[in-house]
Design brief:
This protein has twelve helices and 24 strands. By secondary structure, the chain is of the alpha/beta class. It has two domains: 215 residues, FAD/NAD(P)-binding domain (3-Layer(bba) Sandwich), CATH 3.50.50; 131 residues, 3-Layer(bba) Sandwich (FAD/NAD(P)-binding domain). β19 and β20 form a beta hairpin. It starts with 7 loop residues before the first helix and ends with a helix.
Length: 428
């Protein structure tokens, strides 16, 4: 890609200025001067330019779909990581069932499709000038899609901020590497996993992780147990998970529902909860979550999540910004599959229609979600839903809900087929 690059010194100065300003309301306007000085990273677009922030399930799917709907659209994908890692199914990596390369893909085929891949971090949005500020310079856009995923609200658990570097969470790509190393070095005792109040990314994920790590302890004959502490009354797919906990891992897993984590004392190896203190030898503390910082810097939210205009995912206060995936507050699970579906069938379709001067389809396409959860190295359970939208409440509406909570190897095989199908669309 061509375009003038800024020096590392300039990048750092610009980034610090953006990070320190808050970037909400009047602060956004105060940053316009900083954005205006940032050199353009890409030259003029040959057609309408759609800039997508986030190279995950939602962002990649939107980018590839836009190019397939209209090859003339100038599509730019902005992502700070050079490699994609799938968080769906990644508990298989933590338990040692699959190696990391099974979950990772590069962006080569997107570039071959004519998509600009900008390996930079998004810092802010100049909505008046329609520019995205990155660590490498500014990118002009006609339409902007924010699909940034989540960040952790470490400050909401007392004592966690000071030791967060010691406690990899494993709900964002590649954090799993450090967490797996800790698991491999675990010699026994209490392996504690905590689940925050919702909403958070992948609601069944922590419960699957508990089962898979109990399987790991049992298989490797490690004298220890998983202690699962959850703020919720019961897990998603409860019959399947609870049966696995009781029938497969009675000696390796303890489960405490309705128990909220309030603090951590890493020096004493203790977490504080509403039920009292728990000792730990290894701790996987999953903190509360919120939309990634870029949506606040864009000025499209004033809370933890973005209140989008369904069904097309437009920001409430900007007709040229779409917010996709885990960042929104429109109901339904925060899942890779739902981001995939809504990127493909909603956001890309709406943008392509606008560029072509056409009306979007009416009624809007339904979207589907399915989530597979492994409970050992071969068997899985699943839950699936079809979603429309509630025109009055402006939220997703469940049209149909199905689940199979009987663990089977067939479901495990279906989970792999599902993953290969979606990864193939995104990266094949």
């Amino acid at each position: 890609m061509k375009g003038k690059r800024v020096s590392r010194r300039t990048v750092l100065k610009t980034g610090l200025a953006a990070a320190g300003a808050g970037l909400l309301g009047g602060a956004v306007r105060a940053q316009q001067a900083h954005y205006a000085k940032s050199p353009l990273l890409l030259g003029p677009a040959r057609g309408n330019r759609v800039v997508i922030v986030g190279g995950g399930w939602g962002g990649v799917t939107t980018a590839r779909t836009l190019k397939r709907l209209d090859p003339g659209i100038d599509v730019v994908l902005v992502e700070p990581k050079e490699i994609f890692m799938s968080c769906p199914l990644s508990n298989l990596y933590l338990a040692g069932v699959k190696d990391l390369h099974f979950f990772t893909f590069d962006y080569t085929n997107l570039v071959k499709d004519g998509i600009h891949f900008v390996n930079e971090r998004a810092l802010g949005v100049d909505r008046d000038r329609k520019r995205l500020l990155t660590t490498g310079g500014s990118i002009a856009y006609d339409y902007l899609v924010l699909s940034p995923g989540v960040e952790y609200a470490y400050e909401r658990v007392a004592g966690l901020g000071e030791v967060k570097h010691l406690l990899p969470v494993g709900f964002r790509p590649f954090e799993h590497v450090a967490l797996r190393r800790q698991i491999e070095n675990f010699k026994g005792g209490d392996l504690v996993i905590t689940v925050p109040k919702g909403p958070y990314r992948c609601p069944p994920g922590p419960y699957e992780r508990a089962a898979m790590l109990a399987w790991y302890l049992k298989t490797n004959k490690i004298k220890g147990k998983v202690v699962l502490i959850s703020a919720a009354a019961k897990p998603p797919k409860a019959p399947g998970f609870l049966a696995a906990y009781d029938e497969l891992y009675a000696d390796y897993l303890e489960y405490y529902p309705n128990t909220e984590v309030t603090g951590v004392d890493y020096g004493r190896k203790v977490i504080q909860t509403s039920l009292g203190e728990f000792d730990f030898d290894l701790l996987n503390l999953i903190p509360p979550m919120r939309a990634a910082e870029i949506v606040r810097k864009a000025g499209v939210t004033d809370g933890d999540w973005v209140d989008v205009r369904l069904p097309w995912h437009l920001a409430k206060n900007d007709d040229f910004i779409y917010v996709l995936g885990d960042a929104d507050s429109a109901g339904g699970p925060k899942s890779g599959k739902l981001a995939f579906e809504e990127g493909k069938n909603r956001v890309a379709v709406h943008i392509a229609a606008r560029i072509a001067g056409k009306e979007p389809p009416a009624p809007p396409p339904e979207v589907k979600n399915i989530c597979y959860s492994f409970v050992n190295d071969e068997e899985a359970i699943w839950i699936a839903a079809r979603y429309g939208w509630d025109a009055v409440k402006k939220r997703r509406k469940v049209l149909e809900l199905k689940m199979d909570t009987k663990r089977t190897a067939k479901n495990g095989s279906l989970a792999y087929d599902w993953a290969f199908e979606h990864w193939g669309y995104m990266f094949g």
